[in-house]
């Protein structure tokens, strides 16, 4: 990690920009929901009886024309209008941190006109051992033609994110407040930690890591499931200035070895095994295989710290390598529960997180400490309208950026109560999520559109068995949520009373970039709405010219923001080429975006997921959204295939609602739905019936596999080890000609 350095840069942050107007409709009042009845969860009652070149952009156009219909919170959304406005209730807005479009406009404009002052005021609410220079709050250069790319925030300031996320709350008298609830794979498995207990465990692990030679700037790879030990390990690294690299515990040994070889950690932290649903996954065996591979690549790791996850596998059943392997429970509890802080510069590295790259080699996204701390805390607080009494559940794994920013750091920096869940969302049945919501009284529920569509497919009866009265804010992350899934999430899960924070952001951005603020303005189902404070999104054409008003194009960001990543580890050239060379002076997101006449932003998918059909550039997300609007379609994934006449054709994998049989008439009906919503040029050339889609355990659809199946390149399917259900690939191949 010592090779992490910055090139020189020049420019200070400033540049006012007027934000497009937000509709100023006044929400209608809504009576408060009835008090939550006390009852025994159906799932727990049942369980008690059992055993314990330049990319192209989508020419995305509105799916519907005409004015937007206003829809008040509490009333069902009109089924025929994708653009119906959904207002927060007057009661919700009255208590919201940002309660009106006018208040947002004032705050947003200040964040653009005076970013140094705006972000400094927020930064000062955290503890800094040493303040940054007020003249150098932000220094940036986003233009490759003017020198190396550089982004710095609060440089010279000394702080520690672990102190601000844990110690600060204990010292403020909140040590006995719950920091984390943990729900295990089985419904009768649970646990909890107060902030004081969390601090003790973080310090013990931090002291152990120091004892084996881990210090500031050293890398530590963490390969753990969603046990409380995962965020504990992240915080312990941050406490001593080590750089953690969490690898999703669903990656194969090859993928893990790639990451180990790249960052050269001193220690790997894992557990012996985990159960996800009924399936046992021997994580330690995967780590062993990866360490053999990385050693062949010249990188040897001296210590593999292994947590005994007794609910999945006992010690005696675990394969062991003497001299390398160390049991967590044998050493960590023996260390003191106090550990001195390593005060680090705001621009010192905090973590590495590897994300997929188009070349096949993972990109090591590097985030630093100060700006990331300020930005994730602020985005969490405002996008979810956080209150100290909230109980917050994000279903993401800490192996992804969402788990870093909105399971660990963002919530804990706000002193929140966080719920971690180790199991599968549909185990032992599709009601598990709502059982957990009722058990803990979850108030904020943040999940992925993929899970929403999966649960929607299982039927509303699983939702209706549970109260869910505690919920007050819902959230969506990971990909654009289509209006049909949005409506179901809002009407069924939220009982037509919970605003949805449909967030757009990326691993590289560190935190939310475009997101609703729940009490501030009306929402449109499927739109990420407006930018967060300090974020200046622009839509440009293929020549990099900014477009105003209603338009479609490439989504870029003008000016830096505190949470931005600083480089790709060990590959500065790739960093600049991928993100800053396509459009000089901007961060290029790689996403297509449409801005409607009201200024709302609609993400149309990755621009490299655009299909060029006879000169028409069609975003896959647009076609998928149209297909899922069909009442018999539960989920869809669209890829492009070669077409001898049109250049590319549209190939759609379609999962039907349970109980609906395959038929040619239904296939024609689905095609007609796309034709009517987008146009004849977007009609799928092939509808491929899909009992399920190939997804990772985190819910990400593996489109690479779908492209190979669609192109009949079955000998090039590649690694399927990270799929939640590898058997679905064989099912799709079998149905290729159905």
Briefly, what is this?
The protein has 738 residues and is an alpha/beta fold.
How is the secondary structure organized here?
Blueprint: E1 11-12, H1 42-47, E2 70-71, E3 85-86, H2 90-95, H3 101-113, H4 115-123, E4 138-141, E5 150-153, E6 158-159, H5 161-174, E7 178-183, E8 190-194, H6 195-211, E9 219-223, H7 229-239, E10 243-246, H8 253-263, E11 267-271, E12 274-276, E13 279-281, H9 283-296, E14 303-307, E15 325-327, H10 328-331, E16 344-345, E17 349-355, E18 363-368, H11 370-383, E19 391-394, H12 401-413, E20 417-421, H13 432-440, E21 444-447, H14 449-458, H15 461-464, E22 473-476, H16 483-493, E23 500-502, E24 536-540, E25 546-547, E26 551-558, E27 567-568, H17 572-579, E28 587-595, E29 601-606, E30 610-613, E31 616-619, H18 620-628, E32 633-643, E33 647-656, H19 664-677, E34 686-689, H20 703-710, H21 727-734
Parallel strand pairs: 2-3, 7-20, 9-10, 9-11, 11-14, 14-15, 19-20, 19-21, 21-22, 22-23, 33-34
Antiparallel strand pairs: 1-4, 4-5, 6-16, 7-8, 12-13, 17-18, 18-27, 24-25, 24-26, 26-28, 28-29, 30-31, 32-33
Helix pairs in contact: 3-4, 5-6, 5-12, 6-7, 8-9, 11-12, 14-16
């Amino acid at each position: 990690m010592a090779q992490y350095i910055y090139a020189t840069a020049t420019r200070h942050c400033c540049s006012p920009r007027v934000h497009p107007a937000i509709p100023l409709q006044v929400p209608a009042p809504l009576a408060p929901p009835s008090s939550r009845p006390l009852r025994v969860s159906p799932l727990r009652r049942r369980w008690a009886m059992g055993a314990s070149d330049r990319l192209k952009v989508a020419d995305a156009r509105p799916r519907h024309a005409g004015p937007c219909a206003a829809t008040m919170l509490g009333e069902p959304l009109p089924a025929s209008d994708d653009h119906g406005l959904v207002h927060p209730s007057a009661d919700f807005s009255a208590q919201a941190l940002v309660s009106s479009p006018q208040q947002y406009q004032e705050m947003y404009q200040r964040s653009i006109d005076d970013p140094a002052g705006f972000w400094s005021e927020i930064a000062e609410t955290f503890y800094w051992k040493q303040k940054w220079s007020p003249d150098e709050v932000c220094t940036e250069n986003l233009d490759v033609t003017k020198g190396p790319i550089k982004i710095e925030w609060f440089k010279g300031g000394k702080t520690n994110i672990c102190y601000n996320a844990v110690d600060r709350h204990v010292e403020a008298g909140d040590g006995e407040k719950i920091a984390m609830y943990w729900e295990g794979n089985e419904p009768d498995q649970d646990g909890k930690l107060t902030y004081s207990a969390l601090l003790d465990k973080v310090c013990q692990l931090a002291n152990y890591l120091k004892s084996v030679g881990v210090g500031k700037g050293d890398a530590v790879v963490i390969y753990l499931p969603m046990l409380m030990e995962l965020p504990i390990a992240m915080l312990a690294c941050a406490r001593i200035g080590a750089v953690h690299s969490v690898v999703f515990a669903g990656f194969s040994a090859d993928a893990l070895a790639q990451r180990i070889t790249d960052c050269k950690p001193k220690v790997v932290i894992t557990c012996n095994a985990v159960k996800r649903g009924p399936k046992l996954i021997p994580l330690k065996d995967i780590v062993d295989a990866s360490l053999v591979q990385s050693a062949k690549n010249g990188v040897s790791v001296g210590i593999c710290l292994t947590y005994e996850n007794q609910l999945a596998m006992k010690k005696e059943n675990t394969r062991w390598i003497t001299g390398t392997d160390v049991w967590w429970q044998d050493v960590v509890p023996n260390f003191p529960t106090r550990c001195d802080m390593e005060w680090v510069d705001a621009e010192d590295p905090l973590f590495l997180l590897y994300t997929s790259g188009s070349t096949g080699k993972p990109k090591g996204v590097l985030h630093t400490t100060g700006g990331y701390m300020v930005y994730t805390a602020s985005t969490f607080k405002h996008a979810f309208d956080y209150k100290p009494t909230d109980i917050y559940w994000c279903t993401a794994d800490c192996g992804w950026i969402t788990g870093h920013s909105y399971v660990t750091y963002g919530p804990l920096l706000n002193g929140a109560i966080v719920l971690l869940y180790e199991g599968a969302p549909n185990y032992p049945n599709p009601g598990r999520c709502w059982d957990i919501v009722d058990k803990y009284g979850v108030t904020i529920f943040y999940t992925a559109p993929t899970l929403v569509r999966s649960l929607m497919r299982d039927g509303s009866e699983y939702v209706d068995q549970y109260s869910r009265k505690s919920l007050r804010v819902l959230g969506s992350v990971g990909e654009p949520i289509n209006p049909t899934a949005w409506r179901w999430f809002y009407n069924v899960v939220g009982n037509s009373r919970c605003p949805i924070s449909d967030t757009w952001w990326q691993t590289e951005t560190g935190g939310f970039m475009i997101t609703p603020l729940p009490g501030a303005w009306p929402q449109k189902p499927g739109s990420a709405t407006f930018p967060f404070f300090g974020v200046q999104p622009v839509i440009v054409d293929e020549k990099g010219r900014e477009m105003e008003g209603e338009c479609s194009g490439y989504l870029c960001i003008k000016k830096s923001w505190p949470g931005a990543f600083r480089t790709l580890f060990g590959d500065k050239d790739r960093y600049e080429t991928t993100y800053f060379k396509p459009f000089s002076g901007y961060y290029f997101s790689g996403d297509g975006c449409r801005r409607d006449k009201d200024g709302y932003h609609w993400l149309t998918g990755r621009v490299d997921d655009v299909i060029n059909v006879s000169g028409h550039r069609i975003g896959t997300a647009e076609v998928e959204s149209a297909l899922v609007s069909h009442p018999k379609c539960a989920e869809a994934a669209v890829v492009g295939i070669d077409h001898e006449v049109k250049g590319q054709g549209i190939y759609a994998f379609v999962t039907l609602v349970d109980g609906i049989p395959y038929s040619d008439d239904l296939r024609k009906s689905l095609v007609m739905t796309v034709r009517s919503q987008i146009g004849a040029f977007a009609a799928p050339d092939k509808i491929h019936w899909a009992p399920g889609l190939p997804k990772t355990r985190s819910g990400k659809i593996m489109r690479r596999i779908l492209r190979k199946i669609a192109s009949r390149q079955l000998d090039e399917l590649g690694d399927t080890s990270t799929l939640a259900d590898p058997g679905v690939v064989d099912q799709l191949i079998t149905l290729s000609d159905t």
